[in-house]
UniProtKB/TrEMBL annotation:
<feature type="domain" description="Trehalose synthase N-terminal">
    <location>
        <begin position="45"/>
        <end position="195"/>
    </location>
</feature>
<feature type="domain" description="Glycosyl transferase family 1">
    <location>
        <begin position="271"/>
        <end position="450"/>
    </location>
</feature>
<dbReference type="GO" id="GO:0006006">
    <property type="term" value="P:glucose metabolic process"/>
</dbReference>
<keyword id="KW-0313">Glucose metabolism</keyword>
<dbReference type="GO" id="GO:0016757">
    <property type="term" value="F:glycosyltransferase activity"/>
</dbReference>
<dbReference type="InterPro" id="IPR049438">
    <property type="entry name" value="TreT_GT1"/>
</dbReference>
<protein>
    <submittedName>
        <fullName>Glycosyltransferase</fullName>
    </submittedName>
</protein>
<keyword id="KW-0808">Transferase</keyword>
<dbReference type="Pfam" id="PF21269">
    <property type="entry name" value="TreT_GT1"/>
</dbReference>
<dbReference type="InterPro" id="IPR001296">
    <property type="entry name" value="Glyco_trans_1"/>
</dbReference>
<keyword id="KW-0328">Glycosyltransferase</keyword>
<dbReference type="InterPro" id="IPR052078">
    <property type="entry name" value="Trehalose_Metab_GTase"/>
</dbReference>
<comment type="subunit">
    <text>Homodimer.</text>
</comment>
<comment type="similarity">
    <text>Belongs to the glycosyltransferase group 1 family. Glycosyltransferase 4 subfamily.</text>
</comment>
<keyword id="KW-0119">Carbohydrate metabolism</keyword>
<dbReference type="Pfam" id="PF00534">
    <property type="entry name" value="Glycos_transf_1"/>
</dbReference>
Amino acid sequence: KPFDVHVQAEPLTRFEPELDAAGWSTLQAQATRARALLAGRTFWNVSSTARGGGVAELIPRLVAYARGVGVDARWLVLTGTPEFFHITKRLHHALHGSRGDGSPLGAGEHDRYDEVLRDNVEELLVLVKPGDVVLLHDPQTVGLAPALATAGARVVWRCHVGCDTPNAEVARAWEFLAPGLAAARLTVFTRAAYVPPQCADRAIVIQPSIDIFAVKNQPLAPQVAHAILATTGLLRGTPGAPEPVFTRADGVPARVSRGADIVRLGAEPAPDTPLVVQVSRWDPLKDPAGVLRGFALLLRQSPDLRAQLVLAGPAVTSVADDPEATSTLQDVISLWRQQPHFVRQRVHLACLPMGDLEENAAIVNALQRHAAVVAQKSLQEGFGLTITEAMWKARPVVASAVGGLQDQVVHDVNGLLVRDPGDPAEFAGAVRSLLEDPERAARLGRRAHEHVRAHFTAVRHLTDFVRLIERLDA
Ligand code: UDP
């Protein structure tokens, strides 16, 4: 059975001080339009996990603002068997053009996929009324489309992933998803290049966004960020440090109290050690092993470089739809074990506590704010929220020139792009260039912040949603 995740409404007025008069009145007009378009209807979002990953990050923030303007927006999370999530993870890889574990995606898998979705759809059909808009997220949910459409819902499928050079794996995924896809009135992709031919007549491009008011992005004094990281065991503590506090979404202050689960040799880095940080789910497509290889190469080239690497991700069993996390982390740990002592000493593999999502967000916030360089060395990436989060914090970023990352980062203007994600030397060179030239790094970071303000906040995203609903009504 799917479950309903309650999302507290957030007032749109929060954005007023961020916008000029014209921008604010446009946003208000969009809100009025959204209310009118969805009067008497519910706007459902359906996804496959309530925690961990970009989709679980994105949905509640948009639902919150939609509710804040009087739209009845809701979030449902489907439930599935381990076998279902194994199949959908394989599909996730295939849409990225990757073979994953190479397991089949044939008729038998399709039957098992449909079976789990049939159980979920029964409950959905009780909730969803004719005329409601149902936004299904990612391949886990596409198979819900036919039953929902038959019941009179207006179904949209939003795909958050893609592949720059579609191959046989991508074709296999589209074939698997075709029956569900046929029932979607509209499809949404993060970039035009991801739209497959069968969706060309009903596709729109909407890039994701971050919520600049979320706990993850709230301003933190550097000393407080230190204190939070010291509490989790990611930095050495300092005497007389302030309390590791953050502000919860409801405005109440709270303390970070949990430690991360960290694999490392030796002590925590000192607070003034420059950190290179990648925060990602433990997914091979995020290439944590490649980051480690690139960083190890950098240290071999420059053994005296004062820098350390933190690879951080969620506690491995916490992400319902990601069964690969444990094995991916194990692979990184094995690679770490093979490194020479001087490399192992300067690399920290951290699983962040996920029991309290706001506390987790505060830790990620502190880590991103404290980082000297934030990396996202993905092999494919529909859109990397982690990079947008870091750019908002005015951090210099190094991202692979793949997928949506290429649309987020303008090379040498607001960050650096690494052309060949398979080349550790290029990654090492980019990181070095930022560590060795803090002024340039700061300049890129300042422009990064402005770029996010202009393109990747909820203001732009909500406007795109109005366009989507208008198109559905046309
Ligand atoms: N994230 C997190 N805690 C973690 C690891 C990741 O909160 O331990 C968040 C991260 O801050 C970002 C999202 O998960 O908001 C990942 O989104 P992204 O688009 O980068 O990648 P995805 O996981 O969707 O592939």
